[in-house]
Amino acid sequence: MLNDRKKEILQAIVEEYIETAEPVSSKAIVEKRGLDYSSATIRNDMAELEKIGLLDKPHTSSGRVPSAKGYRYYVDELLNYNDISIQEIKYIQEQLATKINQIEELTKITTSTLSEITHYTSVGIGPTAQKQDIEEIKFVLLGSRMILAVIMTDTQMVKETIIKFDEDISEKQVKTLNYVFNNKLKNQPIEIINKPLEEYLYQEMSDMVKVIKPIIEQIKKLLFEDNEIHMQGTRRELDLPEFNSLQVAKNFMNILDEKELIADMLNSGFAEDINVYIGGENEKEELKDFSVITFKHKVGNKDIGTIGIIGPKRMDYSKVISVMKYISKKLNEDKQ
């Protein structure tokens, strides 16, 4: 358990290191952070903080840097959750006030807004199809052997696809398709589109099996394909000192190229909170040298996507988490 003085010193070191990316000395804390303690007292406490694993001493430098354990203590115990300016609040409000017709657009705008304010790489992914209900399926005849299928869900997700057939299709068949599919699927979870549904439709409409089969296959492909991952801010983050190392920069870019890894990262954690993973706390070996912060944005009880930040352990946690909390609050206010 740290006393108040050690907490102040640890907080000053973390925030100074986040700002400068240079090892922090007792002199820097006295001169720049305004702590009312002597340099000797601060040096002694820094040595104690290093001994219990909250600080590291790189090479022969007289300064200290936070360890992963130190960052964790800072995030859990010392963080300022109101590190957001009036200008940043106005910017978020302006961006989220944009007229949005689809969930994909909302996720993309939120991802871009978060990256623009924090200057870190942000990634976002929409809700998985299985967690949504079907609001309507509409079929439109485009030609004698081609129809347009449009699927709308209760989270305002809209998917559309063109389906081609080997035989001619009539307007009457399309009208029947609209009736049967909506009668069976309206207000049902998307995961109902599986083998039992296919068998049901075959039995009900044996004369239209050749039409139904390619429709079912195409709808499955459309709804259960991997969600698009939105990404912003990579180029600006690569200007940070940590990425002067070619190996670190290469590892970072490799992570961003791994879409499955990014999706797993975004879909982990608890749905009701902001999740912070620092260095070795990340389950994936590829992420051990970085910090990841994620949050799920929801409307009521509906999961409408996940946004995350990935960056160096020397991340401005106070800024990132404050902005995430405000964005999450605005999303719930504006979209209900």
How would you sum up this structure, described in words?
- This protein has 336 residues and is of the alpha+beta class.
- The chain contains 13 helices and ten strands.
- The chain has helices spanning 4-20, 26-33, 39-51, 68-78, 86-96, 103-118, 171-185, 195-204, 209-224, 234-237, 246-257, 259-267, 317-335, and strands at residues 55-56, 65-66, 121-125, 134-143, 146-153, 158-164, 229-232, 275-278, 290-299, 302-312.
- The strands form three sheets. The protein has a five-stranded antiparallel β-sheet with strand order 7-3-10-9-8, sandwiched between helices. A three-stranded antiparallel β-sheet has the order 4-5-6.
- Helix 1 crosses helix 4 (68-78) and helix 5 (86-96) packs antiparallel against helix 6.
- It starts with a helix and ends with a helix.
- The model has no long low-confidence stretch (mean pLDDT 82).
